[in-house]
Amino acid sequence: MSLRKTASLAGATLLLPLALAACGTTDAGATAAAPTGASTGECADVPTSTGPVSLTDSFGRSVTLDKPAERVAVLEWQQVEDALTLCVAPVAVADVAGYTTWDGAETLPAGVTDVGTRGEPNLDALFAADPDLIIVEAYTADDEIIKKLAEYDVPVLATQGADAADPVANMIDTFDLIAQATGRTERAASVVDEFEAHLADAKRKIADAAPAHTDFVYFDGWIDGGNVALRPFGQGSLVGELGEELGLTNAWTGQVDPVYGLGQSDIEGMAPVGASTLLYTGTKDEEDWTAGLAKNAVWANLPAVVEGRTHAFPAAIWTFGGPRSAEMIIDAYVDIFAQ
Questions:
Q1: Domain 211-337 has CATH 3.30.450.20
Q2: Close Cβ partners of 272 (under 8 Å, ≥ 6 residues apart)
Q3: Which residue ranges of the chain lie beneath pLDDT 50?
Q4: Where found in the cell (predicted)?
Q5: Domain layout of the chain by residue ranges
Q6: Which of 64, 156, 163, 312 has its CA 20 to 30 A from that of 221?
Q7: Alpha helices per DSSP H over 111-154
Q8: Which among 217, 189, 176, 136 has a CA at the least distance from the CA of 322?
Q9: pLDDT for 40
Q10: pLDDT in tens, 142-164
């Protein structure tokens, strides 16, 4: 499964991170299995409200439910992760295989209906799972997925995919919306407190370690026409902002898109930031684009490469995820800069 993605620059269209192939479906069953990503202790006796739910989603749309949603279908991975962190197991998910590969923060239980790709879900499979709420990721109130699902008699909660103006706040806002819809606001508050404490503790560890180099650039990539294309996570990216919250400096200051904070480059374009510590995804895609780095003379002569300051993050860290993915990102920074 390829997750090759391109990011917009000014005036360009952002191509969202969509999987390329649809997956099959499985029977949802009468009830959802218990989440397995959070420990049994965490998910035992989670306080859940029982009264009617009335909330406003990321695009000012009113969402009303007779009671908190229990059978949720989720069409984007951050929101899948969020539901599991809230101890709610989705009955249907878009691209189960992709989620399992790219997001290791929370584990999907068995028996979840796979409704195909995130960009074009199989609506027959989606509604056969009998959800009482569908959670989607959108970018405007007029997104095609919202329009399409509005034709059906199931409430839709639309969450904002990203916001480079404040990616950490947007991540938490999305998590909180899902908590409201599922009656898990107490659980959400506890998780956010844990995240903030995790961040503060990690910042202290890095400060105490006083690393000699604190500038960094995080990137991922793919093969494009036989060449390695790179995507630096610049100002406004979740990875970049978490690094700066830890007291580090994101050295990629080139042009980025206004939603994800992502730039575009080739290997030669990394020369201006090559003295910074270079970080990249450790998740393996169909194409081993990292093999192309070692073959490039410009890459081989970057100061960070010469000095051994290039590091792959652990696999299955979803860089567009929720609080638990953010904690994994934070841990990766600590492992690199506080040793």
A1: no
A2: none
A3: 1-2, 4-32, 34, 36-39
A4: Cell envelope
A5: 40-195, 211-337
A6: 163
A7: 123-128, 144-149
A8: 176
A9: 52
A10: 999 999 999 999 999 999 989 99
Backbone phi, psi, residue 15, to 5°: -95, 115
Residue 237, CB-side half-sphere exposure with 13 Å CA sphere: 29
Question: Tokens 């035992």 appear where?
Answer: 44
| Residue 37, both tokens | 């990503």
Domains 40-195 and 211-337 share a fold: yes
Q: Are strands 62-65 and 215-224 parallel, antiparallel or unpaired?
A: unpaired
* Strand 92-93 versus strand 72-74 pairing type: parallel
- Does domain 40-195 fall under CATH 3.40.50.1980? My reply is yes
**At which residue do the structure tokens 């996570």 appear?**
233
Pairing of β 72-74 and β 62-65: unpaired
Determine the Cα–Cα distance for residues 336 and 278; give it in Å rounded to an integer.
11
Residues 40-48: contacts with CB under 8 Å, at least 24 apart: 42/87, 43/87, 46/86, 46/87, 46/184, 46/186, 46/187, 47/184, 47/186, 47/187, 48/182, 48/183, 48/184
Contacts of 2 (CB under 8 A, 6+ apart): 19, 20, 222, 285, 286, 287
